[in-house]
Write a structure and sequence with these properties.
The complex is a heterodimer of chains A (about 425) and B (about 400).
Chain A (H helix, E strand, L loop, with lengths): L14 E4 L5 H11 L3 E6 L12 H6 L17 H6 L4 E4 L5 H12 L3 E4 L5 H5 L3 H7 L4 E4 L16 H7 L21 H23 L3 E4 L2 H4 L5 H10 L16 E5 L6 E5 L3 H11 L2 H6 L3 H6 L1 H12 L4 H10 L4 E3 L3 H4 L3 H5 L3 E6 L3 E6 L3 E3 L17 H8 L4 H9 L11 H9 L4
Parallel strand pairs in A: 1-2, 1-4, 2-3, 4-5, 5-6
Antiparallel strand pairs in A: 7-8, 8-9, 10-11
Chain B lengths: L2 E2 L5 E2 L8 E4 L5 H11 L3 E6 L23 H6 L3 E5 L5 H12 L3 E4 L5 H4 L4 H7 L4 E6 L14 H8 L19 H24 L3 E6 H7 L2 H9 L19 E4 L2 E5 L6 H7 L3 H4 L7 H6 L1 H13 L3 H10 L4 E3 L3 H5 L2 H5 L4 E5 L3 E5 L5 E2 L17 H8 L4 H9 L5
Parallel strand pairs in B: 3-4, 3-6, 4-5, 6-7, 7-8
Antiparallel strand pairs in B: 1-2, 9-10, 10-11, 12-13
Helix pairs in contact in B: 1-7, 6-8, 7-8
The chains are: A alpha/beta (about 425), B alpha/beta (about 400).
Chain lengths: ~425, ~400
């Protein structure tokens, strides 16, 4: 087998053809790439990956660039694109062009897995749907990630991850206790779909090893999400009650909340699971009066507001990390609420080698998060920063498929391949509206 | 392997048919990991310590009355598993677990680091009886490192991972996602790591340890924020709250509740058309977020009446017809009754021996050849002791009685 990236991981020898965009799809295939799969990320110079940005305004003002500077090639500098596409080879192919589709199908013949995350029906429009691909590679595993699935009344609907979470019931539960207007959360459905999909793909590869059989896999973001709300579905189906948002508290224990600390936006989470932990906390607070009054869970549950106020008054002048360590020394679960920058220097993550420095030609050397699992014999690896636009056109199309240099130049002239996004009137118009040129 | 299931349809086994997993884990993360494998066809033996998995004591319960066989959380986390009670801290219990491990592909555990080894069930002990086995640990911080022995809950892990600070009002305390998200996401990562190691063992015959950190899994929920803030110390998405400086906003009130929106500049003209306010689509100043922010009040006054005169269902349908990504904030009842979930047969009903009919969430993925499948509800405590210990390990009934008498089994 002709291989470009002979990585030592568990998925060595598996080739993934990835024409995904934005978050869920690209992150799914990066999980595979970190375990040794050779992932070829297919983009086009006609349509930018959502996370490469769609205008110079988005490039400049999004806060996702090194030093917040879009540089000369801003589409290479977006943290979201660069995080979700590391370890991959990057090529360009215009799938709206018959030559692009033909080359894509040549790659399918030598690939094991094909992944997309477009709206249902898009693969058929490009002529690369499962029924077509299985004819040229019978054991191919094809994966699609539509928002709501390719069947049913919502098959043509569009949504980002946060609309999916609202529709799936999580939105109304993410809130402060007793408040009605929902708190908007993040794009949570995407990371759930990415990790779930990576798991399912390897299960399908496992099955293929044993039987030689490929298959089509559909992960609807709306169907990945409900299993993460087991208590809510149980509460309604068993008791007929809509669960109410609880903020940071739980129904069975007090104190259990997030409390203020010294500094701006500084907080600490403290959870007393047992009477003994609560009493140790009250001793540390010097509240001997609480020891008798609030010795039992029923007594504490009945006085949640009073106790929380006392804990907050005690934590407010304290430094969050030192306080967390003192509480942990007393055996009480407590952690400072980290800001993103603080996660980068977390001693536990550093000791586990969670951040790996990668050198990107347009960005420089920066730490990238690895994975939450360490496999003792085949550890995940981050070895290569995300590809620049069409960076591996020559290696993949020339080296793997044997396309001649002359033909590659023809394809470039026809804009089937390229190394920079095409100028686009819509983008130019928006740039002008933002006063950038 | 293909067998006819009820209704005469041809039921195919999942992709992990023939794979055996020993699930020694307790609580949420480990059991959720083992469930992922069980639902794809693996035979998962849930080994519970005397007294059972502590998750049996977690609510909700019918009528709010705790009962170890009625935990609404437990029945979701333990589908497709069989249960046997074994005390791994006893010599006979340890022997049973080694016998099970000798016949298994993977063992999943969630005890504090060092516990398994202290019982004589660490990696070396397991590999001695089965060098191909995968040993997956799911712990708050991973099995080593300066924090490995700290105490943790879902809330403290959300805090330390920065998952917590992503939601809530900017001028108030951050607010956690509902339920036990860090533990469940930790479970998904443990299932992933286990699956990769199972694949490797199938290819090479080599077993290994999969050391899962729930803290790191929680960081992975927004891993792009880590690179963003490394790129620039002002990077990373701060929590926007309910009133972010943008139009359209992220949440809008409607006649009967709220809808969720995320409208880009490209979708702005469609948004205007959707609300019957076509003129705004042609105003060049409003083509970008910056321009719209300058006229925020005017736009709110202009668009709010349309939203307040439609239900969330109506807004959803009209928006989607216009290609605008808007969705309703649904109650759980509305999710269960949602036309899309109904059309795809997503939610599943089963009969549980104690609870009667139960409703469970469905497949996170559709696989055409090897479907996700609910074969059995969560097991009762020690339900399959005889089947496993006598039927599969060959203990005689009188030996089982002796094991029970000495407290090694249930």
């Amino acid at each position: 087998m002709n291989v470009l990236t002979d990585l030592p991981g568990a998925l060595r020898g598996i080739r993934v053809l990835d024409y995904t965009t934005a978050w869920a799809g690209p992150r799914l295939t990066t999980y595979l790439a970190e375990m040794g799969a050779e992932v070829i990320h297919v983009e086009s110079i006609q349509y930018l990956d959502t996370h490469r940005g769609w205008s110079k305004w988005a490039w400049g003002a999004s806060g996702n660039m090194p030093n917040n500077d879009p540089g000369r090639r801003p589409w290479e500098r977006n943290s979201q694109y660069n995080e979700f596409n590391k370890n991959k080879l990057g090529i360009t192919l215009n799938l709206a062009d018959p030559d692009g589709v033909a080359l894509f199908k040549e790659l399918v013949k030598i690939s094991d897995v094909v992944v997309d995350n477009y709206k249902a029906g898009t693969t058929a429009r490009f002529g690369v749907d499962y029924d077509t691909l299985r004819k040229i590679r019978p054991d191919i595993i094809q994966v699609s990630l539509p928002a709501f699935g390719s069947t049913g009344p919502y098959r043509d609907y569009t949504a980002w991850g946060n609309q999916v979470m609202a529709l799936c019931g999580q939105g109304l539960l993410l809130n402060y206790e007793g408040e009605e207007e929902p708190e908007p959360g993040g794009t949570y459905a995407d990371p759930l779909a990415a990790i779930t999909g990576a798991f399912v793909v390897v299960a399908a590869l496992f099955h293929r090893r044993r039987t030689g059989q490929g298959q089509y896999i559909e992960l609807a973001l709306s169907e990945v999400s409900p299993p993460l709300l087991p208590e809510a579905f149980a509460e309604y189906t068993m008791n007929g009650r809509q669960p109410l948002p609880r903020g940071n508290s739980v129904p069975e224990a007090v104190p259990w909340n997030v409390y203020p600390c010294q500094g701006e936006d500084a907080w600490i989470a403290i959870c007393c699971r047992t009477d003994a932990e609560a009493l140790r906390l009250f001793e540390m607070m010097g509240r001997r009066d609480f020891l008798e009054r609030f010795a039992t869970i029923p007594a504490r549950l009945a006085a949640r507001a009073e106790i929380d106020a006392a804990v907050a008054a005690w934590t407010a002048p304290q430094e969050k990390y030192q306080l967390a360590d003192r509480l942990q020394a007393a055996g009480i679960p407590a952690e400072a609420a980290a800001q993103y920058a603080e996660v980068l220097v977390d001693p536990q993550l550093q000791a586990r080698g969670f951040f790996v420095e990668l050198d990107h030609p347009e960005c420089g050397v920066y730490p990238h998060p690895l994975q939450a699992v360490r496999l003792s014999k085949t550890p995940p690896i981050d070895y290569r920063a995300a590809p620049t636009y069409g960076q591996h056109n020559a290696e993949v199309l020339g080296g793997l498929l044997g396309v001649s240099q002359e033909r590659l130049e023809e394809l470039a002239a026809k804009q089937v391949i390229g190394t920079e996004p095409l100028e686009d009137e819509e983008r130019r118009r928006r740039d002008r509206a933002w006063g950038v040129s | 392997m293909v067998s006819r299931a009820n209704g005469g349809t041809l039921a195919m086994p999942g992709p992990l048919a023939g794979v055996r997993i020993i699930d020694l884990s307790e609580g949420v993360a480990g059991p959720f990991a083992a469930k992922q494998l069980a639902d794809l066809g693996a035979d998962v033996i849930k080994v519970e310590r005397p007294g059972g998995d502590p998750a049996r004591r977690y609510g909700p319960f019918p009528g709010d009355i705790p009962h170890p066989e009625k935990s609404g959380l437990f029945i979701h986390l333990n589908t497709n598993k069989r249960s046997v009670v074994v005390d791994p801290a006893t010599p006979s219990g340890r022997a049973i677990i080694l016998q099970l491990a000798a016949r298994a592909h993977a063992l999943i555990e969630s005890f504090p680091p060092g516990t398994l080894a202290a019982w004589g069930l660490g990696w070396d002990d397991l590999a001695a009886v089965n060098p191909r086995i995968v040993l997956t640990s799911v712990t708050p911080f991973g099995t080593a490192g300066p924090a490995a022995h700290r105490q943790a809950t879902d809330l403290t892990l959300a805090a330390r991972s920065s998952f917590l600070i992503a939601a809530g009002e900017p001028d108030r305390e951050p607010v956690k996602y509902p339920g036990r998200q860090t533990e469940l996401v930790g479970g998904l990562h443990a299932a992933w790591g286990t699956m990769v190691a199972l694949y490797h063992a199938d290819v090479t015959g080599e077993g290994q340890v999969v050391d899962t950190s729930i803290l790191e899994a929680a960081v992975m929920i927004s891993d792009q924020n880590m690179l963003s803030v490394a790129y620039w110390n002002g990077g990373g998405r701060a929590r926007a709250g309910r009133r972010p400086l943008r139009f359209p906003p992220i949440v809008m009130p409607v006649l009967d509740g709220y809808v969720s929106l995320l409208v880009t500049d490209l979708q702005w003209p469609r948004f205007c058309r959707m609300a019957g306010l076509e003129a705004y689509a042609h105003d060049p100043q409003l083509a970008t977020q910056r321009g719209r922010i300058e006229r925020l009040e005017e736009l709110e006054v202009a668009f709010l009446p349309w939203f307040l005169s439609h239900t969330k269902r109506e807004v959803f349908e009209i928006a989607q017809r216009h290609g605008v990504p808007i969705a309703p904030f649904n109650t759980i009842a509305e999710v269960l009754d949602d036309p899309q979930f109904r059309a795809r047969g997503y939610f599943r009903k089963m009969v549980h021996p104690v609870l009667g009919e139960i409703t469970l969430t469905g497949p996170p993925a559709l696989l055409t050849e090897t479907p996700w499948e609910l074969r059995r509800p969560a097991p009762l405590l020690d339900q399959h002791a005889e089947e496993i210990l006598c039927g599969e390990l060959g203990y005689r009934p009188e030996e089982l009685l002796a094991l029970r008498a000495e407290g090694a089994t249930g």
